[in-house]
Specification:
heterodimer, A: mainly beta, six-stranded mixed sheet, four-stranded antiparallel sheet, 12 strands, B: seven-stranded mixed sheet, 0% helix, 53% strand
């Protein structure tokens, strides 16, 4: 079945540091890929997405490129801020079957200190 | 446009009871999905409803059920509650295509004592 693997956390960075969060996936079809962010006490918010190979999703300084050859969708940001502290989830939605089920990674907690 | 709303936000129940959670999707969205979030298992898919029909189902026991109404609002029911059902239950709505974004509500925090 489909699966998403994220790097182990938590991650603690200083403000303005470079961020990389690794994400790899296994899917039977040709999935769409997503990064969601969850702030304390809230639901999930879409951060960015990509729907086909070599697409780059970007939002609020975050970027991720859909790499079919390495089945990866790593999240990067050049300079993190304290306000980026949250839990980040990588997810996929597989095209097999007419549905929109999301399969999530375990999530990683990012803490950014001033 | 109003976002996804879930009611209630918090619930405390005892073992053996049943509970019903409600989700109102974004206007125009016909797909509603439910997810369970726990520290141990992470985010797990429960089921998806599209135009009042269950379109997909995760690996949860039959105690977990749901339905969708003609206005796309959805309810989720858990019968015979167990301690392990304590979780954050998240609802998401979308147009229903796999490439489209799912928009999540704030969740219902269920505590089973």
């Amino acid at each position: 079945g489909d699966s998403v693997t994220q790097m182990e956390g938590p991650v603690t960075l200083s403000e303005e540091a470079f961020l990389t969060i690794n994400c790899t996936y296994t899917a039977t079809g040709y999935p769409s890929l997503f990064w969601y962010v969850q702030y304390p006490g809230e639901g999930l918010q879409l951060l960015l997405k990509a729907t086909k190979a070599d697409d780059k999703g970007s939002n609020k300084g975050f970027e991720a490129t859909y790499r079919k050859e390495t089945t990866s969708f790593h999240l990067e940001k050049g300079s993190v801020q304290v306000s980026d502290s949250a839990v980040y989830f990588c997810a996929l939605s597989d095209q097999t079957g007419a549905n929109s089920k999301l399969t999530f990674g375990k999530g990683i907690t990012l803490s950014v200190r001033p | 446009k109003a976002g996804v709303t879930q009611t209630p936000r918090y619930l405390i129940k005892t073992r053996g009871q049943q509970v019903t959670l409600s989700c109102s999707p974004i206007s125009g969205h016909r797909s509603v999905s439910w997810y369970q979030q726990t520290p141990g298992q992470g985010l797990q898919f429960l089921f998806e409803y599209f135009s009042e029909t269950q379109r997909n189902k995760g690996n949860f026991p039959g105690r977990f059920s749901g339905r969708q109404f003609s206005n796309s609002r959805s309810e989720m029911n858990v019968s015979t509650l167990e301690l392990g059902d304590s979780a954050l239950y998240l609802c998401a709505s979308s147009t229903g295509r796999y490439t489209d974004t799912q928009y999540f509500g704030p969740g219902t925090r269920l505590t089973v004592l």
